Structure prediction request, 223 residues.
Amino acid sequence: MDADLWFTLYELALRGANDKSLILSSSELANWLKTSQQTAARRLKDLEERGYLTREISAAGQKVRITQIGIDSLRIIHESLTKIFEAKEAGVLVIQGEVIAGLGEGAYYMQQEGYRKQFTEKLGFSPFTGTLNIRLKTEEDIRIRHQLDRISGIKINGFVSGERTFGSVKCFKTLVENQVEGAVVLPERSHYNYNMIEVIAPINLREKLGLKNGSVVTLKVRV
Prediction:
């Protein structure tokens, strides 16, 4: 959406057009936007044509209400700004994604004593058997995931058990949903791509936080 149209939508939302019909004239909107009446009228028309709001002409003036598409557009900006300002916390990156079903491999790796001993020593907790698998959906979240590759993190060394070699893992301490301390784990060898991330914690995160497949989760990753 063009910046001028977004700002117009923002001004309408400030005055309650996101949850009720707002009666206004083009001159009123022009005054709010510090622009001409013609420009204000054109912006309303453009927003209506693009599906961001509905208009109804009445004797009292035009009734304007922001549609769900418009609300979703405002929410995207809100979430982006929230990430920017939350990331200003010293040494914190904010990542958001949705919970998905894993392939069942997390439990196997969490049971390996070579990993568990190091997790306990370096992270301060023995992880619950299994990982929480999160799919990143926005370009910004995937960009942050790439950024983690360039940060050293907490190294969990690889080891040999029997005839099998287990690769090293990089970890970052993480606050899950502002409630549970855990860690993001980035295996040296992984079949996942950059839109996936795994989280471990001392407890079952799904049960503790009431998560199911499709639930949106916010992580504050300490770097």
The chain has eight helices and twelve strands. The longest strand covers residues 92-100.
